[in-house]
Amino acid sequence: MIWGWLGALAIGLVLGILGSGGSILTVPVLVYLFGQPEKVAIAGSLAVVGSISFVGALSYAWRGLVEWRIVGLFGVPGMIAAYGGAWVGRFVPGAVQLLLFAVVVLVAAVLMVRPRKRQEPHARQPWWSVPLDGIAIGFITGLIGVGGGFMMVPAMVLLIGVPMHRAVGTSLCIIVLNAFSGFHKYLGVLEQQHLALDWSILGGIIAIGIVGSLIGNVAGTRVPQAKLRRVFGIFLVVMGAYILARTAPAVFA
């Protein structure tokens, strides 16, 4: 179980350093290191991601680094979509959810590795389309337990023109809304399927993850983020390929 607790520390470190990506580790940690069923791991991931992000969001909100208008435009539709994604998840086999999760991990890897280029103001996304992005990311959050920060932060920086630090703080607030909305629905899904969360494990992961995020916040100011994102992106490629190799035979058999 020591590897599971080290995985919990890694979740917090990545969230603290990069402001996103930590949630992508949560489902694999719960499935492969703690041996939980897929649907239990997805529900637990939402609880972990929401809790750790909440602590991080408080810090950014205290410093005034949250765009509350975007939280409303992005987060409210996302909450509804996350609830819907969790509802759809009850009809999707766990192995298929894990396969979709692997695909999202590989997409995240591309976003992590790809160099970021600033776009001109005229190319930025119109405000009216922000809720549509919120719906898409919220649905993914509810369906497979990923917070979506790796998609939200680049979208805010490149398409809306939000400064990086404010984008991270805003993203954390939206993740909290999406994660807890999806988690609320998943409680009913687990009950219907006679599954239960292990709060002793989840509580430990949340506590260790929060400590890791605080350490990551400090370390993130001293380590080049561009290099870290590339290294983490390569790690995601390996992890995504591993999950695909484990789940694809069960799905397509």
Structure report:
It is built from ten helices and no strands. It is mainly alpha-helical. The protein has helices at 2-18, 22-33, 38-62, 68-89, 94-113, 130-144, 149-160, 164-192, 199-219, 225-252. The model has no long low-confidence stretch (mean pLDDT 82). Helix 1 packs across helix 9 (199-219), helix 5 (94-113) packs antiparallel against helix 10 (225-252) and helix 7 (149-160) runs antiparallel to helix 8 (164-192). Helix content is 79%, strand content 0%.
**Rg result:** 17 Å
| Helix count from the secondary structure assignment | 10
| Helix vs. strand class | mainly alpha
The tally of beta strands, per DSSP, is: 0
Distance between the termini: 31 Å
Question: Kindly state the mean pLDDT as a whole number?
Answer: 82
Beta strand %: under 5%
Order of helices and strands: HHHHHHHHHH
- Poorly predicted ranges (pLDDT <50, ≥5 residues)? none
Q: What helical percentage do the residues reach?
A: over 70%
> What overall form do the CA principal axes indicate?
globular
Major β-sheet profile: none
Main features:
single chain, 253 residues, mainly alpha, 79% helix, 0% strand
Topology:
Layout: H1 2-18, H2 22-33, H3 38-62, H4 68-89, H5 94-113, H6 130-144, H7 149-160, H8 164-192, H9 199-219, H10 225-252
Helix pairs in contact: 1-2, 1-9, 2-3, 3-8, 3-9, 4-6, 4-8, 5-10, 6-8, 7-8
Describe what is shown at a glance.
This protein has helices at 2-18, 22-33, 38-62, 68-89, 94-113, 130-144, 149-160, 164-192, 199-219, 225-252. The protein is mostly helical.
